[in-house]
Design a protein that fits this description.
By secondary structure, this protein is of the alpha+beta class. The protein has a single domain, classed as Alpha-Beta Plaits. It has 4 helices and 5 strands. The chain has a 5-stranded mixed sheet with strand order 4-1-3-2-5. β2 and β3 form a beta hairpin. α3 packs antiparallel against α4. The protein is globular and about 40 Å long. It holds the Pfam family BLUF. This is BLUF domain-containing protein. InterPro entries: Acylphosphatase-like_dom_sf, BLUF_domain.
Length: 135
């Protein structure tokens, strides 16, 4: 059985560029080591993350995320079982998105998921679209 968790939150305004780089590296290493796929998007002061993987591991990781001081106002958007990993083939596993060009690549990837009627793809596409509209 697999699961996906998706949330958005606000970045701590006191964080500096080096703090974000450390967060991105830590997140990528941790998720890769736990076979978690998905994406972390930072757009302005907003974080948006999709996590996929083993439900027990995801729930543990998510509890740690909720307690992390580097963000606040966490809003859970999705937390449910899934049939397959959808983001495993996007940039090979787990990805961090910090720029608009890569966000457009993610939008294109999700559009392909939509075209193949992959679960939750319409939901993810709307969120990515709203992030791009905020440019």
């Amino acid at each position: 059985m697999l699961k996906t968790i998706c949330y958005k939150s606000e970045a701590n305004s006191r964080l500096e560029l080096m703090d974000f780089e450390a967060l991105f590296n830590q997140t990528q290493l941790k998720n890769d080591s736990h076979n978690i796929t998905g994406v972390l998007v930072k757009k302005g002061d907003l974080f948006f993350q999709i996590l996929e993987g083993n439900p027990i591991i995801l729930d543990t990781v998510y509890e740690d995320i909720k307690k992390d001081h580097r963000h606040s106002k966490l809003t859970e958007l999705l937390n449910k079982p899934i049939k397959q990993l959808n983001f495993k083939s996007f940039d090979i596993g787990y990805s961090v998105i910090k720029d608009t060009e890569t966000l457009y690549s993610l939008q294109s990837f999700i559009k392909t998921l939509q075209d193949n009627n992959v679960e939750n793809s319409d939901f993810f596409f709307k969120i990515i679209e709203s992030l791009l509209e905020d440019n």
